[in-house]
């Protein structure tokens, strides 16, 4: 059974490990130097979201970060991708946190399709990410 717990600063190392494994599995379009760049700035953002670890029994599945009605981050350990955990987490967050907005890397076709298949629609797109890097962002709304 899936459960969640509020993440603590002591768990940031674990969260960054999950993030990196997930990104390397799903974001093959990122340059190595950009992966390192994001890995260094992500801890600053963890402080500004409602950060949650998701578990199935004692196994850590992944983590999410929300802010108001936006899903800011959702990353799963790659061994759990494709096993419906992402859908279960997303549906729980929609119900409990009233999630209505998500930004996704346009080049991450799998994630973009995932959110579109869960009722989100494209609102707009930007040619670069929030850091001005050449990774287009798709803004989704429900």
UniProtKB/TrEMBL annotation:
Keywords: Acyltransferase, Transferase
Pfam families: Acetyltransf_7
GO MF annotation list: acyltransferase activity, transferring groups other than amino-acyl groups
Transferase is among the record's keywords: yes
Entry annotated with the keyword Zinc: no
Domain N-acetyltransferase: 13-142
Protein name as it appears in the record: N-acetyltransferase domain-containing protein
Species this protein is from: Enterococcus sulfureus ATCC 49903
């Amino acid at each position: 059974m899936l459960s969640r717990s509020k993440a603590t600063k002591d768990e940031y190392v674990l969260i960054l490990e999950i993030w990196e494994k997930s990104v390397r599995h799903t974001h093959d379009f990122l340059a190595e130097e950009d992966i390192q760049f994001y890995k260094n700035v992500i801890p600053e953002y963890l402080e500004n979201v409602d950060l949650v670890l998701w578990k199935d029994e004692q196994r850590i599945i992944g983590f999410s970060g929300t802010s108001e009605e936006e899903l800011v981050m959702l990353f799963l350990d790659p061994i759990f991708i494709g096993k419906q955990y992402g859908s279960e987490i997303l549906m729980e967050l929609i119900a409990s946190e009233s999630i209505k907005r998500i930004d996704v890397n346009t080049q991450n076709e799998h994630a973009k399709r995932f959110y579109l298949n869960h009722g989100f629609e494209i609102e707009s797109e930007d040619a670069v990410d929030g850091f001005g890097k050449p990774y287009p962002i798709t803004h989704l709304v429900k």
